[in-house]
Amino acid sequence: DLSGIDVRAEIERLRKERNAVILAHYYQKPELQDLADFVGDSLELSRKAAETDADVIAFCGVKFMADTAKILSPDKIVVLPDLDAGCSLEDSCPPEKFRAFREAHPDHIALTYINCSTEVKALSDVIVTSSSAETILQQIPLDQKIIFGPDRHLGGYLSRKFNREMLLWPGVCIVHEAFSETELLKLRAQHPNAPIAAHPECPPHIVDHADYVGSTSGILQYAKTMAGDTLIVATEPHIIHQMQLAIPDKTFIGAPGADGNCNCNICPYMALNNLEKLYLALRDLTPRVEIEEGLRLAAKKSLDRMLDMAS
Ligand code: 13P
Ligand code: SF4
């Protein structure tokens, strides 16, 4: 029972006492974004985790992100407020099935979205995030055959943009799948001058209507630099919090799902973290992310390639 405890004050105290850094993704609740030392997209958060000199990384995000932090910073204690904060893309790609798929296509390299398990990273050649995928793909020789997993929408988007065939793993993000084209077009009719920004995890019937397609940080940057005063945002709606902080005089509207509002597009995994669980994680230094050393080193190879090729 945490009643009577000033959770925010305790987080502040423990952050110093533990020499902890709090990293948060844009899809986290506003109160977690507000007290984080750094808020970013998957690539930026990986870089921060790799560089930090803190003793503890408290990761307000999902499991694959905390795993990535541990892979890159093995000497740090990495805590995730709720270990059940998974990802539908990770779930769609069991390592044994991925291994069999790779073995069936020995002449292909595996270019793999960071939204996957450590085991799948270890079975991959190069990891990408939504902000680094285009730069990295362009560095791979045109005659090199590629397996892209687990997000078939990001893979399909890259394939169309660069006119490059890839074998796509059939995974999807349940959050970005839930946007409705019919409702989006209705919304756009109400705001004819508002551009649409979409994450590449969205299916083609959403991305095809977008004026800008990019990672969460890319979308935030677009919001800051766009000409108009209203933006329709086709990604997880918690990012709108950062837009309102950065550009308070513009209007941001979350793209709708089939019910006409954007609440069905809240990521249920990201939503598992909250202030109370963050406090307990800093107090007890649990739940901790631990990775067996052989597996960590194998996964680190593909992540290091990403960090090299993304810059
Ligand atoms: P980025 O923040 O890298 O765009 O990733 C989005 C996402 O879905 C994370 O789970
Ligand atoms: Fe996974 Fe989608 Fe949630 Fe991101 S928004 S963590 S891709 S389920």
From TrEMBL:
Cofactor note: Binds 1 [4Fe-4S] cluster per subunit.
Gene3D superfamilies, sorted: NadA-like
EC nos: 2.5.1.72
Keywords from the named record: 4Fe-4S, Cytoplasm, Iron, Iron-sulfur, Metal-binding, Pyridine nucleotide biosynthesis, Transferase
Required cofactor(s): [4Fe-4S] cluster
GO biological process, one term: 'de novo' NAD+ biosynthetic process from L-aspartate
A GO CC annotation given for this chain: cytosol
Residues holding iminosuccinate: H25, S42, Y113, I114, N115, S130, H199, P200, E201, T216
Pathway entry: Cofactor biosynthesis; NAD(+) biosynthesis; quinolinate from iminoaspartate: step 1/1
Subcellular location: Cytoplasm
Reaction(s) this enzyme catalyzes, per UniProt: iminosuccinate + dihydroxyacetone phosphate = quinolinate + phosphate + 2 H2O + H(+)
Main location: cytoplasm
GO molecular function, one term: metal ion binding
SUPFAM superfamilies: NadA-like
Known role: Catalyzes the condensation of iminoaspartate with dihydroxyacetone phosphate to form quinolinate.
Family that this chain belongs to: Belongs to the quinolinate synthase family. Type 2 subfamily.
The protein's name in its UniProt record: Quinolinate synthase
Native source organism of the sequence: Novosphingobium silvae
Taxonomic path: Bacteria, Pseudomonadati, Pseudomonadota, Alphaproteobacteria, Sphingomonadales
